[in-house]
Amino acid sequence: MAFEPITDRALTGAFLGEELRAELLGLSMSEAPKEACGLLFSTDVETGLGYRARVTRVISIPNVAPDFTLQRRFELDPVAWVAAERAARKAGEDLVGMWHSHPDGPPRPSQEDAVGAESLPLDLPYVLVDLSALGSEAAVTFWRWCPATPASPPRAGRRDL
Ligand SMILES: [Zn+2]
Predict the structure, then answer these.
(1) Cα angle vertex 148, ends 102, 15, to 5°?
(2) Of 137, 147, 61, 148, whose CA–CA distance to 97 is shortest?
(3) Which residue ranges make up each domain of the chain?
(4) Which residues fall within 8 angstroms of residue 111, CB to CB, at 6 or more apart?
(5) What is the Å distance from ligand 1's center to 148 Cα?
(6) Which of 70, 89, 126, 141 reaches 20 to 30 Å from 10, CA-CA?
(7) Could you tell me the distance, in angstroms and rounded to a whole number, from the CA of residue 45 to the centre of ligand 1?
(8) Distance from Cα 25 to the centre of ligand 1, integer Å
């Protein structure tokens, strides 16, 4: 189980345009030094869902993680999340991704992020904003959660050397 980077420029560029990328950076900065988090929606059903979607709206959801002192934790307010998704569906939008920020790096999902994804696995792109990498491409990166593959059973006839 791990996050795998989505590095295909054509894919990530089509997923999140420049304007919305800038908006994500702004939302992240406004919450720093806390982690910011939220959802990505699309009205563009033509492009399909998930990894081939095109984000048309980004929103932040209050971070209700109990211990902000760690500063590398986020937990979307479940009530606000449900309300936002319900309103979006009414407006003809689909949830196409999740995002959160690391106010002070690293530019990759943390161990806590993996624990969070494990408990709520969604086959959607995860967008990570690293404010310590502002001004570079690495400030916004794209990830896919790959659940654990079941351990293969011991092979019959395998010889222990
Ligand atoms: Zn994180």
Answers:
(1) 50
(2) 61
(3) 2-146
(4) none
(5) 19
(6) 89
(7) 28
(8) 15
Question: Yes or no: is domain 2-146 CATH 3.30.465.10?
Answer: no
| CA 155 – ligand 1 centroid, Å | 38
3-state DSSP assignment of residue 161 = coil
The tokens of 97 are what? Answer: 């991704």
**Three-state SS sequence of 33-98:** CCCCEEEEEECCHHHCCHHHCCCCEEEEECECCCCHHHCCCCCECHHHHHHHHHHHHHCCCEEEEE
Per-residue pLDDT of the chain (161 residues; tens, 9 = 90+): 689 999 888 788 888 999 999 999 999 999 998 899 999 999 986 666 667 788 999 999 999 988 766 556 888 999 999 999 999 999 999 999 999 999 999 999 998 888 888 887 778 889 999 999 999 988 999 998 876 655 555 555 444 44
Query: How far, in Å, is the centroid of ligand 1 from the Cα of 76?
Result: 12
* CA 99 / ligand 1 centre spacing (Å): 9
Cα 123 to middle of ligand 1, angstroms: 17
Q: What's the pTM value of the predicted model, to 2 decimals?
A: 0.85
| Distance in Å, CA 100 to ligand 1 centroid | 6
